[in-house]
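Anyone else keep sequences and structure tokens together like this?

Example one:
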Amino acid sequence: MRVEIPHLRLVSLAFVLCILISGAPVLGGQQASDVEPAQPGEAVPAHPALVFFSQHRLPGSAWTALFAAVRTSLPEAAAEVPSLDAHVELIRGDTLAHGTVVPQSVTVYLHGDCNPAPIAEPSLTGERLGWVMKVGPRIEPVIHVECTPIGQELSGSMEGMSRDERTAAMSEALARVILHEWAHIATQSSAHGKEGITKAQFGVNDLILRNDRAQICPQSGLR
């Protein structure tokens, strides 16, 4: 069952980053909650890990850009949400041997097409960009990111960019959605803030914060 956060109102070019209560994830696959915990006597890593899986193949350059964007956004996000560990390890799931156990991990599933299109695509108001699941009182350590609507939202702003610039912009947007959802997991709270990484709705200017992109979409965001 989907439960809407009660104070949200959907507006043009502002999308909900939401929590689903119970129910099954969009795609199957091993979730972090299915991984056995470390056994007594095993060393527990000092920092958590984000383990990434992509529905569609991403080139190595895209993974590099995404991890760099997460690292760049982490200090600001950790300042806002102290329970986020700025020294988190970032791991590509496709590089792990089958059956590898990663203690203290959060699984990140990238759904849809994470390669930004070179031409503008129509976007639908109100599509979710990212979500986590709450089972009973616990928010599960699994993040779902919807790449296709994120790319559609950004595509009009990426016209004229080179491929590398589009990849960098998409990576920054993905990183901010991931950090938003990780904040829900780290705090075990569905609460949202009025600004910053914990905002309930993200417009283009919330997804891309670099100075040269600051005025991409001055009318988007909350009203």
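And example two:
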Amino acid sequence: MHPHQQAPYVTIRAIQPVVAGLKELGYNTESIFNKVHISSRVLENADDGIPHSVMMTFWQEALSLSGDDQLGLHVAEATPIESLGVHTYASLSSPTLREAYHRACRYQRLIHDSTDLLFKEGPDEGILQHVLPDGRSVPRHPAEFLVTLWARFGKLISGENWAIRLVCFTHNAPKDISEHQRIFQTGLQFNSGRTAMHIANNVLDVANRGADLGLSGVLDDYAGRLLKQKPRLNMTSQSEHVRQQLLRMLTGGSPGVEEVAEALNMTVRTLQRNLSREGVTFSGLLNQLQHERATQYLADPAISITEVAFLLGFSEISSFYRAFKRWTGKTPAEFRVKKAIYFQSPDQSRN
């Protein structure tokens, strides 16, 4: 696949572990490939790629075949580590989980051309977060697959010290969350505007008994060469530029498309055309950004709801309330009270 193509692509490294996990669960992956009209031979070249839309269709067909409403969780649990590639081995050989997650972020571009994996350092915790620069949310099953893999890596590296503070998803809570409880054993926050996992610093800094600095150095060199051979594509940069510009302009007023286009030195028509090529709209980007930031600001009790509205560009508190109700089904005050929807673990629920 070539960099000049317009649609976002994922490398075969992204689909290999999904296929491997489905096979471990006993599903006929060849029939899924036939349904999405690509050959299973694409798996032979990890550096090749498929359109992101095809990857999402592959997940949908796998869901239809399995009938498993917890498919993302179960595939991630079943995926053989050896199917996850050089970037995973480099991470697993790191001296601590903190360094492992930093490596995972560094090598995210080996998997997906247009998404980012971010690790945010805090005074008492770190937050690993998957970010789509085009403003869309990760669909439920790929998101749950991804976060379950994060948890698997965490447990492999930190061992008996492994614990998660909070897991966040953008999708609504499914009817049955017992598998989420079993796997994550922590607070769960759905419809949160982000795909993220919070881990305490004392867990992040536990020494990795399986660390191999010599091996990680060799793998870093190899992965680094792969990155140099795979420059970042420009096809999603317009939406990311718009998001960054919106962040700079939000406070004190909601910027219009005309203001953003002028700040980016282009016409409104050109800006909208470029976004359209990426499958997004200006209003969609603005809404997603405001949604994400709203849930983050409301998690901090030191920031009043009026301040949150101002920081997000709403001139009237009532407008913010209506928008937030549309995004989450709750008012900002209700969301703040119930910002983390904690569920008892299966063991606790039997007490």
